[in-house]
Structure formats: C-alpha cells, structure tokens
Design a protein that fits this description.
The chain is mainly β. 0% of the residues lie in helices and 53% in strands. The strands form 8 sheets. It has a 5-stranded mixed β-sheet, with no helix packed on it.
Length: 373
C-alpha cells in the first residue's frame, strides 16, 4: 500500500446493480435430504433462556435458564457452549448434559467472546469497566486484564493467535494487546467510532468499520500504524471477509452492500440489499454470502464470485443472527421479532420450518457435533 497514512481514498467503482437469479424451490425430482442431527443453540435475551433445537426433528430439546444472554460461542475441541450475559458472566453449558456446568465471572458486563484455536484460552471485553479480559478457559477463571476505554465492545484475534485488536469507539482508535504477555502494545487512531473488525488471514492488516462516518480504516498489524481511510460513500455497519482475504463486504444501514478489494484497498462495487441489514456470514465451501435484513424479514443469498443474487427468502419479522450447519446444507436464523428460529434449506433455497424458541432471540450457534440418541 503506497498511500500516505492519512490519505482518504474515494469510491472508484460506479453503482452496479446485482443481477438477480432466483432459484426455483422444486427444481429437482429428488426430495432434499433432511438435516443431520445437529443442534442449534439460541440465546434469548428477554426470556433469559438458551433454547437447544434438534435440527433433524425441528423441535426444542430443552430450554436452559441463563440471565440476559446476549452471545453464544462454541469452545473449540470441547463439547461446551459458552453464553455471555449482559450481567458480566459466561455460563458454560455442557453437552450432552444440557445444563450449566459452571459460571465464569468476566466483570460488570461482557461482550465479544473469542476462543484460541485449541480452546484452552478465551478473551472477552468488559465494556462497563473498559477492560480486555484474558481467560483460562480450562480452569474457568480470569488470567489477566488490560484496561482500555470504557464502552469498548468490539474485539478480534489475529489468525496466528498472537495479537488482540479492540475498537475503542469513544476514543476513535484501535488498541493492540499481545496474547503472550497479556499487555497493551500500542494504539492507532482511526476514523470516527470504530466498530466491527476484520483481519486478513496472514495477520498483516486489520480493517475496521468507522460507524461514525462513511469510511473503513486499515491498519498495519506489525507496525501498528494507520495505512488508509477508505471512503465508501455509506456508513459501514459490519464487515465480512472472504475466506481467502481477497474481498471485504460491508453492509450499511442504507440498504447498500459495499464490496472492497482487500488486497489493494479499493472499493470495487456497491449493491442494493434489503432493509436494515443486521448480520451476515459467508459459507466457505459454496462461496455464498448470506445477509439477514431485519427491516424486511428476509435472508438474501449472494454468490460472491459472480455477484448474483441466488435467492431472497422471507423468514419472519426481524432476523438478527445466522448460523450454518457444518455441511452448509441448512441455515438457522434467529428472529428476535418473532421469537423463533427459522430453518432454511440452502440448495434449493427455501424455508423449511420455524420453531418458537423464546423472547428476544439474540444469537445462534451450531456446533459440529451431532446429537446423541
């Protein structure tokens, strides 16, 4: 990247509408295979429960009481689901026990839980106190803390597992902490209100959505310096990086998807999407980008190689979280407005079922283990 650190790059791609190629639900004579016996775990913030749904039988196995759950993550190399509560704890739910095995205190609040690749360590934020918290996941205890700005709630771990990056939104900067020493090693000023983060697979650059203006900032991870402020024309709401790191997708609140060349830091294209994008993910095997739009209750499927819309499926009233089955044949959609979990078949795209799960569905995860009879 050759530009000056404070340079601002302007949008070079013209508005290019996406070609819509919608799939027919019954394009094959062979009946689709039902889901394998995976389980979907849905955090319901209003009802204070975690609903465990059998995706093969499409029914709730159990609901587990957890106070004000806001986030759920699967611990790698273990059959545990960790559920963050707004109250500042992580409830560790075991499988096949389907009950809370222990609780881990994080602080006055909790956000952005991340595990190391082997599941032995975990990291989270305590926005109320402004702390980055290092956790011994095996022992279920706090191993260290780094103080950041109060209100910090976005965190990312480099793929090499060496560096944590936090968006200090109120200070308009990124903070870098070394995993090994558990110490702050630097900060970088960004655009206004830095939020969601995306890191290249080679751990060289971090992208941050500047949610207070129409920009995405890029920083060098090794030298910890600002490389560019990319002017996108729209306020980015989230960032989704292509698995090979070549492209970055940034949905905006203005019903626009901004597509960037992540290797050359240029805006390639803008595309119209649904109303109020809430979350998105990429299916790595099929190369499909799924975007849930809470404003119109739809999930859009986009082929990231051709930029064609494969399908737009109405799932409910306010979809806010997505999770794919490990085989990518089914997509689970948590709907906070309908208090349900929508189950979609991905090919051909179609809504299979909706399962009531509890009030305020906030997050959903699907572990790679199968339900035991």
């Amino acid at each position: 990247m050759n530009n000056h650190p404070t340079a601002t790059r302007r949008l070079r791609g013209a508005w290019l509408p996406l070609a819509a190629v919608f799939l027919l639900a019954n394009c094959s004579n062979r009946p689709p295979q039902p889901p394998r016996p995976y389980t979907a775990w849905v955090a319901n913030s209003v009802s204070g429960t975690v609903a465990v749904v059998d995706l093969q039988e499409m029914r709730i196995l159990t609901s587990i009481a957890v106070p004000r759950p806001i986030e759920a993550k699967v611990r790698p190399e273990n059959q545990e689901v960790w559920v963050l509560s707004a109250t500042g704890t992580a409830s560790v739910i075991g499988y096949p026990e389907l009950r809370v095995l222990r609780k881990v205190f994080i602080g006055g609040s909790a956000a952005s839980l991340i595990f190391s690749r082997d599941g032995r360590a975990a990291y989270a934020l305590d926005p109320a106190r402004g702390d980055l918290v290092f956790l011994d996941a095996a022992a279920g205890r706090v191993a260290g803390r780094v103080h950041l700005t109060t209100g910090t709630k976005y965190l990312a771990l480099t793929p090499d597992g060496k560096t944590l990056v936090a968006s200090e939104s109120d200070a308009d900067r990124l903070a870098f902490a070394e995993v090994g020493s558990q110490k702050l090693i630097g900060t970088v000023e960004t655009g206004k209100a830095p939020g969601p983060l995306a890191i290249l697979p080679n751990s060289t650059q971090v992208f941050v959505a500047d949610t207070g203006e129409k920009k995405i900032s890029v920083a060098d991870l090794e030298e910890r310096k600002l490389l560019a402020n990319l002017e996108t024309g729209y306020v980015p709401k989230s960032l989704i990086l292509k698995p090979d790191g070549g492209e970055l997708f940034a949905p905006s609140a203005d019903s626009t998807l901004v597509i960037l060349d992540a290797f050359h830091d240029d805006v390639e294209q803008n595309a119209a999407i649904g109303i109020g994008p809430a979350t998105a993910l990429i299916a790595p095997k099929s190369g499909t980008l799924y975007i849930a739009t809470a404003g119109d209750g739809n999930v859009m499927a986009l082929d990231i190689s051709t930029r064609q819309v494969l399908a737009s499926t109405h799932v409910g009233t306010q979809p806010v979280a997505l999770a794919l089955t490990p085989d990518e044949r089914y997509l689970a959609v948590a709907d906070s407005g309908a208090s349900s979990l929508a189950i979609l078949r991905t090919d051909p795209a179609s809504l299979v079922a909706t399962v009531p799960v509890g009030s305020g569905a906030r997050a959903v995860v699907i572990p790679d283990w199968l339900r035991k009879p």
